[in-house]
Amino acid sequence: MSTFLYRLGRGCFGKPWPIIVGWVLVLAAVVAALVVNGVKVTSEMKIDNTEAQQVLDRVSRELPEASGGQASVVFTVPDGDRLDTPARMAAIAETVQDVYELDQVINPADLSQGQGQPPGGPGADQPESGPGTAPPYQPLVLDGTPVPGVLVSTQAPVALFQFQFTVPSTSLTDDQVSAVLSVVEDAERGTGLRVLPSDSLKAIEIPVGAAEVVGLAVAAVVLVLTLGSLVAAGLPLITALVGVGVGVGTAFALSTTVEMNTATPVLALMIGLAVGIDYALFVVNRQRRLIIDRDLDAREAAGRAVGTAGSAVLFAGLTVIVALVALTVIGISMLTTMALVAAATVLLAVLIALTLLPALLGLIGERIVSAKARKKGHTRREEDSHSVADHWVKAVVRLRWPVILGVVAVLGVGAVPAASMDLGLPTGASANTDTAARQSYEAVTRGFGEGYNGPLLVTVESADGAAVTPRTLGAVTQQLQQRKEIVAAVPLGTSQDGEMAVLSVIPTSGPDDDATADLVQALRSPSSAVAQDHDVVIGVTGFTAIGIDMSDRLAEIVPLYLIIIVGLSLLILLVVFRSLVVPIQATLGFLLSILATFGVTTAVFSWGWLGWMVGVDTGGPLFSFIPVIVTGILYGLAMDYQVFLVSSMRESHVHGHHGEAGVVHGFDQASRVVVAAAVIMVSVFAGFIFSHDVMIKQIGFALAIGILIDAFLVRMTLTPALMSLFGDKAWWLPRWLDRMLPDLDVEGDRLLRMLTERQDTEVARRPEVIGK
């Protein structure tokens, strides 16, 4: 592999323009496809093969008018004002009518008798509260006629307008959502009303802002400090931007044909920038060191850099790709799309580092290293022996037992909060207090009760497949109404064949409460009183139920995925390092870092510790996909650092530095670029922490803190301590196993032998040698 990459690097360096033009044409084709196809992304979350999704799919077929996306708007007034003035009631009624006139919204007046009404948006038949209690609301009545879909609280100056779209939320466009927002926000003009859309009603937008640019700026500074040249520092940025331009642009271009969540291209952007910069950094840094330390010309140095550092880049990139593609075995289409788009972006980063980068180096030529830097080459080794890295690794090796125990203890403490990690979907309850979503949630809670923030869609079907009679439906509704966990139950309609009836059920608890999850499970149970008394099958769906099922499904998947990752880690590292100790050490270190990452993320986003630092003022559940996404990505990136650091130690061992000396020498050679790469990754990921999208915020934080933990505590501290503990035995491998494993030549030994043989041949052909 190293010899092939060496020839590839020299070839791209020697003929740069065809390579550069080729990549420019690829980028241009992506831009053209993007212009032609446009962009269509959704904020909807769903998991295939969950009970809630299956029920929703059946409702979509049997009673489509009851399966559309739900939304709500809250109308309030300043403290001390009255909401129920004639002018304000008229303004609310007019706004409601304007919303119903939109093509994408169901108008209850257009529904035939018995075909239902929008969930949570009752018309003349208002939901009733439990037995013997007065409901804390009343319908909005204007000129003696109830306004469908609107409830006015009797406890607070709050009016709640709940309505339903004609299609599922996944099918809504940004223009359709924005049209609703435009209509309801008009109600604020000259009325004194304040309009608060719910969290489910917000414009769909790509959650990327200025903070990501700050992260790139920090990465640029680190590149300049590491490479010591503006020209050299610019190359990783250029190649990374080309990579994400092609990868993310292609994802956007495909979004009109492949259902894509807003987080999918952002995740690809996040990973593509980080690995794109790092992989180019490794190659450019190796080329510069070969020029400075060995007086090679730029082309030969570029070829050798691609052959050696490029081999490590290829393996590291494939490791990340394998970790991401492994997410597809979980069988969740949304997660599969996210993983494949991110994996494709990483693959592009690898290809660009091995082709476009050496081509750009060919354009720059010898200017990649200044004359001043070349003059310092003779003092390089002396500087290395007195560097911070050298002092650090020698101290770690000398105090290896306290270091090992200390790192394990710190990571163990950091992992403690992970035991109480709560998974779910973002709701208004976990939004910041200054957002409309949070204020809407609180207003609904004050006026109607927390359950109105997360109505359940309940289906009723006869166990024998017969039609559900009106008498049975009435009895089921009454029995549901009498449960203490339910505030209201309202029939929405029945299917044309009468075999399915749909109800809107308002729980007493909020969407994120354990009591709501318990209610969902209780209603679904075949042994529940409702199912047994009336010989019916109860199904539960809706946003809240889907969130509950999603969290449960993903919580079950995390252990399985960890097993897959651990198995892959042991196998891949065994092949690369031809060692038993190194794979076990690397995998155990990764498990410590991922558990600590989950712990710290839980403490910040769920417990609220230091939440102000990341722009969070309210604790809430972690996004359901966080564990599997972060595990896959962090595994791949952690193995990047393991490869570049430990392969340097192995190279030192192979070239005669044994025991602790090999660990120290290898660490000195690789630590500077690994530290720079880690800082760059942390900077890029940290830029996404300040996204307005809580999901991107949590992913960015988890990846940033995960890289900090893994790179600096595990790879830069625990790894050299453990490697020095085992000494030369760290490279032991049974002979029978050594014969079975393929030789990937990550360290470039085969390339070095080829170059040595070629040099000897050239020397032998010289006239003065032949004459002798």
TrEMBL record:
Residues 109-140 are annotated as: Disordered. It is a multi-pass membrane protein. The chain crosses the membrane at residues 20-39, 213-246, 266-284, 305-332, 338-365, 401-420, 560-581, 588-610, 622-641, 673-690, 696-714. GO terms for cellular component: plasma membrane. Pfam families: MMPL. GO terms for molecular function: transmembrane transporter activity. This is RND superfamily putative drug exporter. It comes from Nocardioides perillae.
